[in-house]
Structure formats: structure tokens, C-alpha cells
């Protein structure tokens, strides 16, 4: 007597058919899925925590570097948790999207309950670790960041203008965390340049998504925008950030450092112009990809960092 016929192996799409995913992927595949759902490529944004210590000329201080590294790591943990929660909340909508249906949670590789539970754990772990390290300022910034991202996931992402401000605010909090974690003063120049730069990048992201509907993920807020309006926001933010950066470079420095900061205006303006060009082409929907893949932007950013770094050293 022959044995029972072997059961066919369920495909990835079949595993994602149910809301929580009914398949039972192996542990290595599940672990890779969880890591992918945490979107490690997006963690490059957390390098903003280096900005304040670097501009203060304290980045080489071992104590400062230690706290900065901790801030970076905890923001990566917090970001991973919020991405898991966001994907758990949006799983049903993501399955109907051409690109997002391949995400680990939407495809069923990572079950929705697991994503939600692990996301909640990571979200709670980040500020708790800062508290255990007895850094109340870092814990407070992390709590503010998490509160803003949770509000964005549940509400703000569906509100025009509010969604842009919320995402830009997350970038600003990352930059603030690096200075506050080590007790460095945050100047008004730093705050204004970072805020306007974040607004420029996020407005460009929304405009690129509007120009390329497949990348926008069906965001409800996009229905309220036009490319003309978002282009005006870009123009306002870019004009303001360039003027503010020029005033900071020319008015706040003297001596040998002044020449270097003045020279840094050129790559700074060129980076802004490059971003405008890419957005017009519909490329800027993933700003971190620009930094990782666009060679002209990388060259300009390297030049800017070298000039500002030398200016900080001489100053």
C-alpha cells in the first residue's frame, strides 16, 4: 500500500492570504523577514545624531562618541519597532498595493501578531535602555520621537500638511538627540537649518510619490496634494535653508575657519539643487537611496563634510 501523497508546499503568496499569515516559515526565513520589516536601510537617517557633536568639535571625545553611538543604536531599535507596528496596522492595505504587498508582514512571511508584539517590545525597549543608562535627556527625546511616530501611524499620515510636518519633526528629533544626549547646547542656527532641510526633503519625497503613483503606497494624504503645491513648499524651504546656512557660515565664524565655511556654501547649494533635479525626475521618494546610490550627491556631500570638518577643527 502506498503512503499518502506528499502535501504541496505553500507559496509565499498563499502564506500571506490570511490577515496574520497562516504559513509556518522556518526560523532563518522568519528572522530575515523580521529584520527586513525593520527596514535597516532606513536607519541611515539616524546618522543625524552625529551632527551636533560633530559641529561642536566633540565627536572624537570618547565619552561623547559613546553616548552618540548609544543614541544611534537606540534610535535604530525605536525605528525598527515603529516600522513593525506600521506594517502590522497597514497589512491589509499593503496587500492591495503593487509594491508593498511584497513586504514581509503584508506577504505573510512575518505574521501580523508577531510584528505587532515585537514592534511594541522594541518601542518600549529603546527609552527604557536610555533610562537604565541614566540619560534622561535621551530618554525624553526618544519618547517624543516614538509619540510622534505612533501618532503618524494612527492618524497624522492621513492628514495633508500634518503628515509632512510629522515626518520632518522625526528628522529634527534625531538631530537634537545627538546634542542632548551629551549635554551640548543646541543653537538656533542648527535648529533652523535642520528643520528647514527636513521640510525640504520630506516635501520632495511627497512630490516624487505624487509623480510616481506606484511608490506612494496609496497614501490618503496624497489625494489632497498637487505637484504645484509641493513644488512651492520645496521652493520656500530650499530658499530659507540656503539663506539661513549662508548667514550661519558668514556671520558666525571668523579667522581661518571663515574661508572654509564660506567655501562650504557651494556644495551645500549644489546639494539642494541636485535634490530639486531628482524630485523633478520623480526619483526623490526614497531620500536615503539618494545618499546611498546617487554619485553626484555623494561627491557633493563628501565635499561639504570635508570643508565643514576642517572649519570645525580650525575654529
Describe the overall structure:
This protein has 315 residues and is an all-alpha fold. It folds into 2 domains: 28-184, Tetracycline Repressor, domain 2; 187-315. The chain has 15 helices and no strands. Helix 4 packs antiparallel against helix 7 (112-132) and helix 10 (188-211) runs antiparallel to helix 12 (227-251). The N and C termini lie far apart (87 Å). Residues 1-25 are annotated as: Disordered. Keywords: Glycosyltransferase, Membrane, Transferase, Transmembrane, Transmembrane helix. It is found in: Membrane. Its main location: membrane.
Quick recap:
By secondary structure, this protein is mainly α. It has 15 helices and no strands. It has helices at 12-15, 27-37, 51-55, 62-89, 91-95, 104-107, 112-132, 136-154, 162-181, 188-211, 213-216, 227-251, 255-280, 287-293, 295-314.
Annotate the secondary structure layout.
Blueprint: H1 12-15, H2 27-37, H3 51-55, H4 62-89, H5 91-95, H6 104-107, H7 112-132, H8 136-154, H9 162-181, H10 188-211, H11 213-216, H12 227-251, H13 255-280, H14 287-293, H15 295-314
Radius of gyration: 22 Å
* C-alpha termini separation: 87 Å
CATH class of the largest domain: Mainly Alpha
Mean pLDDT: 86
How many separate structural domains? 2
Number of strands: 0
Q: What share of residues is helical?
A: over 70%
Class by alpha and beta content: mainly alpha
| CATH structural fold name of the largest domain | Tetracycline Repressor, domain 2
Write the element-wise H/E pattern from the N-terminal end onward. HHHHHHHHHHHHHHH
Describe the main β-sheet briefly.
none
Amino acid at each position: 500500500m502506498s503512503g499518502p501523497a506528499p502535501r504541496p508546499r505553500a507559496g509565499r503568496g498563499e502564506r500571506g492570504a490570511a490577515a496574520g499569515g497562516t504559513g509556518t516559515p522556518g526560523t532563518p526565513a522568519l528572522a530575515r523577514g523580521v529584520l527586513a520589516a525593520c527596514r535597516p536601510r532606513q536607519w541611515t537617517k539616524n546618522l543625524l545624531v552625529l551632527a551636533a557633536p560633530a559641529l561642536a568639535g566633540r565627536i572624537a571625545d570618547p565619552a561623547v562618541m559613546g553616548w552618540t553611538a548609544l543614541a544611534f543604536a537606540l534610535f535604530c531599535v525605536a525605528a525598527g519597532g515603529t516600522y513593525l507596528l506600521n506594517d502590522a496596522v497597514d497589512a491589509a492595505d499593503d496587500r492591495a498595493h503593487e509594491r508593498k504587498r511584497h513586504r514581509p508582514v503584508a506577504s505573510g512571511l512575518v505574521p501580523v501578531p508577531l510584528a505587532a508584539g515585537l514592534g511594541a517590545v522594541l518601542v518600549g525597549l529603546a527609552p527604557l535602555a536610555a533610562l537604565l543608562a541614566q540619560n534622561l535627556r535621551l530618554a525624553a527625546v526618544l519618547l517624543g520621537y516614538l509619540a510622534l511616530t505612533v501618532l503618524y501611524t494612527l492618524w497624522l499620515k492621513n492628514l495633508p500638511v500634518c503628515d509632512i510636518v510629522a515626518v520632518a519633526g522625526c528628522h529634527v528629533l534625531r538631530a537634537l538627540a545627538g546634542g542632548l544626549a551629551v549635554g551640548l547646547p543646541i543653537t538656533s542656527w542648527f535648529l533652523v537649518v535642520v528643520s528647514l532641510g527636513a521640510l525640504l526633503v520630506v516635501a520632495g519625497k511627497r512630490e516624487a510619490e505624487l509623480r510616481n503613483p506606484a511608490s506612494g503606497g496609496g497614501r490618503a494624504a496624497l489625494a489632497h496634494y498637487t505637484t504645484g503645491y509641493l513644488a512651492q513648499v520645496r521652493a520656500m524651504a530650499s530658499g530659507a535653508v540656503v539663506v539661513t546656512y549662508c548667514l550661519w557660515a558668514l556671520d558666525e565664524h571668523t579667522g581661518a575657519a571663515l574661508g572654509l565655511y564660506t567655501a562650504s556654501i557651494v556644495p551645500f547649494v549644489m546639494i539642494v539643487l541636485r535634490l530639486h533635479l531628482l524630485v523633478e525626475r520623480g526619483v526623490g521618494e526614497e531620500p536615503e537611496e539618494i545618499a546611498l546610490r546617487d554619485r553626484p550627491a555623494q561627491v557633493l556631500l563628501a565635499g561639504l563634510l570635508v570643508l565643514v570638518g576642517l572649519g570645525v577643527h580650525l575654529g
